[in-house]
Amino acid sequence: MKDSWLRKRAILKYLAAGDFVSGEWLATELGVSRAAVSKNIAGLEQYGVEIYSVKGRGYKLASPLSLIDEERLIAGIDNRSFYFDDLDSTNAFMLKHAGELASGDICVAEYQSAGRGRRGRRWQSPYGSHLYCSMYWCFPQGMAQAMGLSLVVACSLATVLENNGVTEVGLKWPNDIYYQHKKLAGVLIEMSGQADSECNLVIGIGMNLAMPSQQAEHINQPWSDLSESGIDLDKTELVIALQKQLQLDIRLFEQQGLSAFMVRWQASDIFYGQPIQLILGDKVIKGLCRGIDSAGAVILENDEGIQTFVGGEISLRGMS
């Protein structure tokens, strides 16, 4: 698999210049047949890379790709970093190898064939267009110690983006990151272990960097990507900054719990003080959003008073 990507990466490097490149020229430079070039171009398109093909002119990327620099990634992070061009899921990889990992180890992929969001939803994962990464952490006191962690991770993402000049970042309970009121990134936390003993936990993050138009057609909710911000973030530096911020915040969370993040969450909560509806199975509950409590539950105020809700089947929608 690694060898097949060496040629594809070489083609992408030539196409990254921004001009049309002929298939014959690529074949000569790579020392392969014209048919081999066409095969690799087709392979890249199957991975979600949009490439213009014009007879008599050659090939050109529809939009620039932001790829990880593996050497800089490894040098920039003290923990172990696993990097792949193609992987089924960064979360699945980390869970599979949990027994060999240390807290803070990360996995990054340019493409996921089975990327997932909350409730088993598919996360669109075209090659090189977005950020797909997972970080491992061990909680010695068990699953209960991780209660509310998804909100901490969302705060970490918001902090990293704001430190890099991205404004109008918002948080949507329990773990979505928004840019200009449209979804930019999501968090999926998975764990294995016992409720009252050591717990292996994997924090998966998917962030839209530059959404290809063909992939956007498959998304059924308002979305945004970092290209809309006009800020050109280096993906390698973004991962390094995110890993470091996550470590700082999770250690703070271990020491002080979610109470240490209440102010940060409220400052970015896009629904705070707004009328909302919570959808819990077939039940819809309406009221004003009053933020979160120290356990990570969303607080709702209505005619029945103050209520709190927590659980994977609750969704939150702004009321028109």
Automatic annotation (TrEMBL):
Keywords: ATP-binding, Biotin, DNA-binding, Ligase, Nucleotide-binding, Repressor, Transcription, Transcription regulation. Its EC number is 6.3.4.15. InterPro entries: aa-tRNA-synth_II/BPL/LPL (IPR045864), Bifunct_BirA (IPR030855), Biotin_CoA_COase_ligase (IPR004408), BPL_C (IPR003142), BPL_LPL_catalytic (IPR004143), HTH_11 (IPR013196), Transcriptional_repressor_C (IPR008988), WH-like_DNA-bd_sf (IPR036388). It catalyses: biotin + L-lysyl-[protein] + ATP = N(6)-biotinyl-L-lysyl-[protein] + AMP + diphosphate + H(+). Residues 74-254 form the BPL/LPL catalytic domain. One of its GO terms (cellular component) is cytoplasm. CDD domains: BPL (cd16442). Biotin binds at residues 89-91, 112, 116-118, 183. One of its GO terms (molecular function) is ATP binding. GO terms for biological process: regulation of DNA-templated transcription. It is an enzyme of class 6 (ligase). PROSITE patterns: BPL_LPL_CATALYTIC. Residues 23-42 bind DNA. Belongs to the biotin--protein ligase family. Acts both as a biotin--[acetyl-CoA-carboxylase] ligase and a biotin-operon repressor. In the presence of ATP, BirA activates biotin to form the BirA-biotinyl-5'-adenylate (BirA-bio-5'-AMP or holoBirA) complex. HoloBirA can either transfer the biotinyl moiety to the biotin carboxyl carrier protein (BCCP) subunit of acetyl-CoA carboxylase, or bind to the biotin operator site and inhibit transcription of the operon. This is Bifunctional ligase/repressor BirA. The gene is birA.
